[in-house]
Design brief:
Blueprint lengths: L4 H11 L11 H8 L2 E2 L4 H8 L7 H10 L3 E5 L5 E5 L3 H27 L5 H19 L6 E2 H7 L6 E4 L7 E4 H11 L3 E6 L8 E5 L8 H16 L4 H8 L3 H10 L3 E5 L2 E5 L23 E4 L21 H4 L9 E4 L2 E8 L5 E5 L5 H18 L11 H6 L2
Antiparallel strand pairs: 1-3, 2-3, 4-8, 5-6, 7-8, 9-10, 11-12, 12-13, 13-14
Helix pairs in contact: 5-9, 6-7, 6-8, 9-11, 10-11
Length: about 400
């Protein structure tokens, strides 16, 4: 069977909770549907959840992340920071994060040895243990969560500095502490807690994490790919490789393990889960529920839907990519209409939401986007945020 770009766009309405009738009631349901929410740019998790909740509140997002801790921030695919359902933490850790942590450790050790030959693997291990001990000790009198600065004040090794870009005009010093805490988090020994400075802040408090139950890496990879195909499928081998950050060998092996079924796509051969196409005709959402209702959505930078595939021509005009993505491939705030990116948006310093249409899809689309912009404006009030990875269009809109 072959799926067209229109067929694939139709699936996004309900599978990615974008159509109003498909929106979820709880933040955890959003993360579950999207196989995790991007949180490398701090505002993304809040705005991605907002766009997909029936009655979005900051309180519900905070509850999931901090009070109930049903969502965990962790580095996994492509070293990206995600908020993932707690029960899936072993899947992400053993399929991806463990290997990412090993590479990060090797890279950090190289950097440390260049600064000081005595800063070897034993030195780093001792610094990590000292940081973990300090975090546990301080956490006993701080509701379990401790700031990075408080930990560094207790551990001299974390206050050591490394020279970045030595000899360059932009040479700078950076403390070792941030890298050590990052590495502990990648290893799953500590977790990021509440933000320091509100929902737009990239600074976090930390807490010691319980040990994860062991899971065979191949089983973990299979579960992750099953979930990706259920939400993002169909996708190509390249899409899965890009999203996971795995080798092509691991991707092919895992697609075979889950029994992925080939399907024709505009960009070549793709994959779906067994029985996926039987659930509905290509013209509907693939779940037997019929064609989706028309909808508009304003998604933040690095939203999982924007960043879900390597090949994006089926939902993004290639001519618009330079305006909506930065030079490193980070997607900015995007305007969607019926599963297609038709423009971009931004938040000005006074909190005003502004947007620009790049593809004309008629009066109905423009009115729906304007209504979504007004809804977001009302929800944010006069609050403002600045994307960590500003795109050319976002910069233009905020001048």
């Amino acid at each position: 069977m072959r799926l067209t770009a229109a067929d694939r766009r139709a699936r996004l309405a309900r599978r990615h909770l974008l159509a109003p009738a498909a929106r979820a009631h709880r933040t955890e349901d959003v993360a579950e549907a999207l196989v995790g929410l991007h949180v490398t740019d701090a505002p993304t998790v809040t705005l991605s959840a907002y766009a997909r909740l029936t009655e979005p509140t900051m309180a519900d997002i905070d509850r999931a992340l901090y009070d109930d801790r049903t969502l965990l921030r962790m580095h996994c695919m492509r070293r990206t920071l995600f908020a993932v359902p707690t029960e899936l933490a072993p899947v992400f850790h053993f399929s991806t994060a463990q290997a990412v942590a090993a590479r990060e450790r090797s890279s950090l050790l190289k950097r440390l040895r260049e600064e000081n030959p005595d800063w070897d693997a034993d030195w780093l291990a001792a610094a990590e243990q000292a940081a973990l001990d300090a975090l546990v000790r301080l956490g006993e009198s701080a509701a379990g969560e401790v700031g990075a600065g408080e930990v560094s004040a207790e551990v001299p090794e974390l206050r050591e500095t490394v020279t970045l870009a030595r000899g360059k005009p932009y040479e700078a010093k950076q403390r070792v502490g941030g890298w050590v805490l990052r590495l502990l988090a990648m290893d799953g020994r500590i977790r990021r807690g509440r933000q320091q400075g509100g929902w737009t802040s990239g600074q976090f408090r930390y807490y010691a994490a319980p040990e994860l139950p062991p899971l065979d890496p191949q089983e973990a990879r299979a579960e992750l790919v099953r979930r990706w195909l259920a939400s993002y499928g169909p996708g190509t081998t390249d899409d899965v490789k890009w999203w996971t950050g795995w080798s092509v060998t691991d991707v092919r092996k895992t697609l075979a393990a889950v029994g992925a079924v080939p399907v024709g796509l505009d960009e070549g051969d793709g994959w779906v889960l067994p029985g996926d196409l039987a659930a509905g005709t290509p013209a509907d959402t693939g779940d037997g529920a019929g064609p989706p209702e028309p909808y508009a959505a304003l998604l933040p930078g690095l939203d999982p839907t924007t960043m879900g595939w390597k090949h994006r021509d089926w939902y993004l005009d290639p001519a618009h990519r330079p305006l909506l993505f930065d030079t490193n491939g980070n997607g900015g705030p995007t305007v969607w209409w019926n599963g297609e990116i038709i423009g971009g948006w931004a938040c000005r310093a006074d909190g005003e939401i502004v947007w620009r249409q790049l593809a004309d899809r008629g009066a109905e689309a423009a009115a729906a986007v304007e209504a979504e912009a007004a809804r977001l404006q009302h929800w944010l009030g006069d609050g403002c945020f600045v994307p960590a990875f500003p795109t050319p269009l976002a910069k233009e809109l905020t001048r």
